[in-house]
Amino acid sequence: MSVWRVKPVSAFEADMKKNDLKRVLTKWGLTSLGIGAIIGGGIFTLTGIAAHDYAGPALALAFVIAGIGCLFASLCYAEFASVLPVEGSAYAYAYGTVGELFAWFIGWNLILEYMMGATTVAVAWSGYFVKLLHLFGIEFPIWLCNDLATATEKILQHNKDFPTDLWDVPSFAFNLPAFLITWIVTAILVKGIKEAAKTNNIIVIVKIAVVLFVIIVGAFYVKTENWVPFIPDEVPVKDAFGNLTGKMNFGFGGVLTAATIVFFAYIGFDAVSTQAGEAINPKKDVPFAIVASLVICTVLYILVSLVLTGMVKYDQLDKAAPVASAFSGIGINWAVFIITIAATAGLTSVMLVMMLGQTRIFLGMSKDGLMPPFFKTLHPTFKTPHKSTLLVGGLISIIAAFTPIEKVSEMCSMGTLLAFAMVCVAVMILRYKKPELERPYKTPAVYLIGTLGVGFNLFLMTQVRAATWNFFLIWGTLGVIVYFIYGKRNSNLEKQGIDNSII
Fold first, then answer.
1. pTM recorded for the entire structure
2. 385 within domain boundaries
3. How far apart are CA 99 and CA 502, in angstroms?
4. What is the DSSP code string of 364-429?
5. Is residue 498 in a domain?
6. What are the backbone angles phi and psi of residue 238, rounded to the nearest 5°?
7. CATH number of the domain where residue 143 is located
8. Which domain holds residue 309?
9. Residue 56 lies in a domain
10. Is 1 domain-assigned?
11. What Rg do the C-alpha atoms of the chain give, in angstroms?
């Protein structure tokens, strides 16, 4: 049997009819989930890393570049979501067009994307939570709120947020806040999508209010001289001990690297497509929510990045809590309380949507026989994939407790970029092969948009660090091995003797 066999569209339609998940999400509920996933780590954490180390004031340009790449992909996602409104996202789209092996590879990398995304946010949440405690005079030991490498680096740099009696280099570190928040979110998700959506809606309202506050109030304190030079000259990179690493930051290359870092911030619209099985009217509402959430958040990202780099010099932004540090840097300390509380709450909703998407990818692959039945088991009362949710929560909590944030965020971006490129390929194939399909939403100029989406996202992948590429290749190789050992033999198409390959 060919590894390029495709899942018939009729099979997707049958899955929709057999769906046991509760359909409770409206058009704006889906949009809220998208905004909940997009606004969070990008604004509250990654802006600091990207501006401080790579782009400077040109951070806004990095968001524009990343947003353009996402826009091409989102238009392709929207068409697929109107044709195949099932859980599984890019995995399901590839399975119906390009073939089983390709779909497996996309699904395997979506697993990496969502797991690393949720882990990144858990670590970022820990940073803001510890800062919040600090504002109330409560000090958290460094070794109990960081991984070992980060704790050691903070001690070496004599981090001002911690008292001097904690400046002993630890031999062990465990990020307890990141570990605990992961299990709190896991418990919410096990309870049900309706409860998760309600929690998310409340947090989204708070987040948007605070983001608008940052833009409006911060605009009065912008100094245009902080934007000069807009793209800083290239500078050699040094490690924590002052040694040259042989790499360069800033310049236009730095802006492109920053774009790959903040790309992580945009994957919320992908998460919308994983919720199709719980949408009331998925064929119309999912495409709307995908495009709406991306457009709204892109505008907010650009405005926030301009305000932050205008309020204080880019090299004075705190990499862990850049928004709060910008306001404290100009003496508006009362705003730091509001921003820190909102960031802590906001990152919670991002984790919620990321972990939600992760379990729905597992669910879709399990229904197709490519993953063990364990992942499609639903709770008898809550109608949620509780077993896979608990497994995902356990893995993320452990990784978040021991891993630096910059490592996991780059891995998330790699999986996202590949998934977006493949969706752009798949939508062109489906338009060519199945022009007769009903498409409530059609991607405009699909062959142009699709080609630009593929080229743009693959180009950004070339800007990622070599170490990230190495891990990505190892993960991909492992995925192919698992497919041939388990997935191919247990695929529903294999058991049904279906071989309608495109090659």
1. 0.80
2. yes
3. 7
4. HHHHTTSS-GGGGPPPTTT-S-HHHHHHHHHHHHHHHHHS-HHHHHHHHHHHHHHHHHHHHHHHHH
5. no
6. -120, 150
7. 1.20.1740.10
8. 9-493
9. yes
10. no
11. 22
